[in-house]
Specification:
Largest sheet: 6 strands, mixed
Structural class: alpha+beta
Shape: globular
Helix content: 10-25%
Number of strands: 6
Radius of gyration: 15 Å
Strand content: 35-45%
Order of helices and strands: HHEEHEEEE
Strand order of the largest sheet: 2-1-6-5-4-3
């Protein structure tokens, strides 16, 4: 899905596009397929995950991290809760709460994705930050 240039009159379609991109990648992810997020990520993506000591830098590092779990992460139910998109020029910041249910286990995470409109007029993730919800 491609993006579009921003003006005050078309913020809502851009926000809907960002949410739709993320929802599609989450659908794939929750069926054990990380390719949606890999395809959405820029070559220089920076990725933070609460299970990693350090951030990953670059699409290749992200692919290397995702490949061993390919086909293994099957979620019975998941929710993207309260997505908010903030826009500024060619940048969109998506923040949401995420709940995933795997058998009897429930995981609650916060997510922030920074998307950038590239020269091909496509939204790509340049920064991802996942964190566990703290009580």
């Amino acid at each position: 899905m491609t993006g579009c240039t921003l003006s005050s009159s078309n913020n809502e379609p851009v926000k809907a596009t960002i949410i739709a991109l993320e929802e599609e990648a989450l659908r794939e992810w929750n069926n054990g397929n990380p390719d949606g997020f890999i395809a959405l990520s820029s070559d220089d993506v920076v990725y933070f995950d609460p299970t990693l000591e350090n951030q990953l830098v670059g699409k290749k590092a992200l692919e290397d991290y995702y490949n061993p779990i390919r086909g293994k992460d099957k979620t019975t139910l998941y929710k993207m809760i309260n997505p908010v998109v903030q826009l500024s020029s060619e940048i969109a910041v998506l923040s949401f709460h995420y709940e995933a249910y795997m058998d009897s286990l429930m995981i609650k995470l916060n997510c922030t994705e920074v998307y950038k409109l590239n020269s091909s007029n496509q939204w790509k993730i340049i920064h991802t930050h996942w964190s566990f919800v703290q009580p």
